[in-house]
Design goal:
Elements (H helix, E strand, L loop, with lengths): L37 E11 L2 E9 L6 E3 L5 E3 L4 E5 L3 E5 L7 E8 L5 E10 L4 E5 L2 E9 L16 E9 L5 E3 L16 E9 L2 E8 L1 E2 L1 H6 L27 E2 L7 E6 L10 E5 L7 E3 L2 E3 L2 E3 L5 E5 L18 E5 L12 E2 L11 E8 L2 E7 L9 E8 L4 E4 L9 E4 L4 E3 L2 E8 L5 E6 L4 E9 L2 E9 L3
Parallel strand pairs: 3-33
Antiparallel strand pairs: 1-2, 1-34, 2-4, 5-6, 6-7, 7-8, 9-10, 10-11, 11-12, 13-14, 14-17, 15-16, 17-18, 19-20, 21-22, 22-23, 23-24, 25-26, 26-27, 27-28, 29-31, 30-31, 31-32, 32-33
């Protein structure tokens, strides 16, 4: 399966970016002596050769000016994701394929600077994340205890289950699920799944279970559910997130459908989950290597919108390639099933009539922002454009006022939202990275603050709490 068409993610590495000097601080905006009790935090990366450093710099304004990391920022380790828990905490999540990564968190101190909190965490490998009440939750799918292996067939294949981390944001205590939560045959088709995104609506969690094919365990135990025997691997191959071994069936046999799992709380109890299915869209996840991007979002009125980029269009095998266009379905507020009257074809509203998207985010009301590809799957598309989708009308509008797509080398994956606007880092060739301000209602953009650095990984806002 192709992996070369994804735009470089939020850590933008540009050979043209110039490192700043200690004297390069004229005109820099900061909190200084004017600290008002809150500040915007920008996570910026400075790269020199093979060495990379990250800094959390503060400013009181994102709409204009220039800022430097020199003598102004708090140096930190680099992170994969920077997540804001409201205006109270900033979390640095680290993804290490197959291993635990060290996570840390930060507050805004009385001097208006970002400061590390006392605890760090070794979280299990994760592929998705979300907040629920006062917990930061990360999830992935992996092997369960070896005592559960399928031994009757003469092998030691271990079933896969959900690996869940719970970080209490206030007490700084990390825990994990104590009971086995099976991911095998989750949808009743013999395949195992992983979760893409966790969206809290009221007390409930909405997530998209993404079918991954059949593990070695599944091929043995659910042999009668193998739809295409020719897909079972005869030998090992692939690399990275696409690696496989002989005896497994990689990727789903059911690309023309999507499920949503609705849980009553954060416990992910298999006896309490409600699974709903639609054949209007393919599975609801954007993908980049092992990461599964959230496509399930609640509007301000409680309606839940489910986006599908139709990533399965990129599959090599024809039986695993979806015929469905990228689209959107909806679950009305308080309901337990899809709204049968609602469906939007995203692709037909794009310049080619066939473009999809990599990421999605809720901005405000029923406005959502999409990170769009510049060409259809199969044509090595690059995710270098942004658009606004309005849920109630189903209208997609490309955002005006952005740099030309051909000059964009990176668009941030962690925007900040405030007062109906999205603040998103963008790196353009031969320029310092900058924050662009997107007005959701008008689908227009303006350039905000620039950062003298190699790349911006996130932006957000924190308040000082005594």
């Amino acid at each position: 399966m192709k992996k070369n068409y994804l735009l470089r993610s939020f850590v933008a590495l540009s050979a043209a970016a110039m490192l700043v000097s200690c004297e390069d601080d004229n005109g820099v905006k900061g909190t200084g002596n004017d600290f008002s009790g809150s500040a915007y935090i920008i996570s910026a990366t400075v790269t020199s050769g093979t060495s990379s450093s990250n800094y959390l710099v503060t400013t009181d304004d994102l709409t204009e000016g220039d800022i430097t990391t020199v003598n102004t920022g708090t140096e930190t380790d680099t992170g994969t994701y920077w997540l804001y828990y409201g205006d109270k905490y900033l979390y640095r999540l680290v993804y290490l394929q197959g291993n635990a990564g060290v996570t840390s968190s930060y507050i805004l101190n009385s001097e208006g600077k970002a400061a590390a909190r006392s605890n760090t965490y070794e979280a299990k490998r994760f592929t998705s994340y979300g907040f629920y009440d006062n917990y930061l939750i990360t999830t992935s799918t992996g092997g369960l205890d070896s005592s559960l292996a399928e031994k009757e067939s003469g092998n030691d294949y271990v079933p896969r289950g959900f690996l869940i981390n719970y970080i209490d944001v206030d007490t700084q205590v990390i825990g994990s699920n104590s009971d086995y939560i099976w991911a095998e045959d989750y949808l009743g088709d013999g395949e195992f799944v992983t979760f893409a995104g966790l969206e809290q609506v009221g007390s409930r969690i909405f997530t998209a279970p993404i079918p991954m094919g059949m593990s070695h365990y599944g091929v043995v135990v659910f042999e009668e559910k193998i739809k295409y025997p020719e897909l079972v691997k005869k030998e090992s191959g692939g690399q990275g997130s696409g690696a496989y071994t002989a005896g497994e069936l990689q990727w789903t046999q059911y690309p023309d459908q999507a499920y949503i799992a609705i849980y009553p709380n954060k416990d992910f109890n298999k006896d309490e989950v409600r699974l709903i299915k639609t054949d209007k869209i393919s599975y609801a996840a954007g993908r980049n290597a092992s990461q599964y991007y959230q496509m399930v979002w609640a509007a301000d009125n409680g309606d839940v919108y489910v986006f599908s980029p139709s990533y399965a269009k990129s599959m090599t095998e024809s039986v695993q390639r979806t015929s469905l266009p990228a689209g959107v379905v909806r679950i009305k507020n308080g309901q337990n099933d899809f709204d049968e009257s609602y469906y939007v074809n995203i692709e037909e509203q794009t310049p080619t009539g066939g473009n999809s998207f990599l990421r999605s985010w809720h901005v405000t009301e029923d406005y959502f922002m999409l990170l769009m590809y510049d060409a259809p799957f199969g044509q090595s598309p690059t995710a270098n454009q942004l658009a606004i989708f309005k849920g109630e009308t189903g209208v997609l509008k490309y955002i005006t006022g952005l740099p030309s797509a051909s000059s964009v080398t990176s668009i941030g994956t962690m925007p900040y939202f405030e007062d109906g606007k999205a603040y998103i880092p963008i790196l353009v060739e031969n320029e310092d990275p900058a924050v662009y301000i997107i007005d959701a209602e008008s689908a227009t953009a303006s350039k905000g603050i620039s950062v003298q650095s190699t790349g911006i990984t996130s932006v957000g806002r924190l308040k000082y709490y005594e």
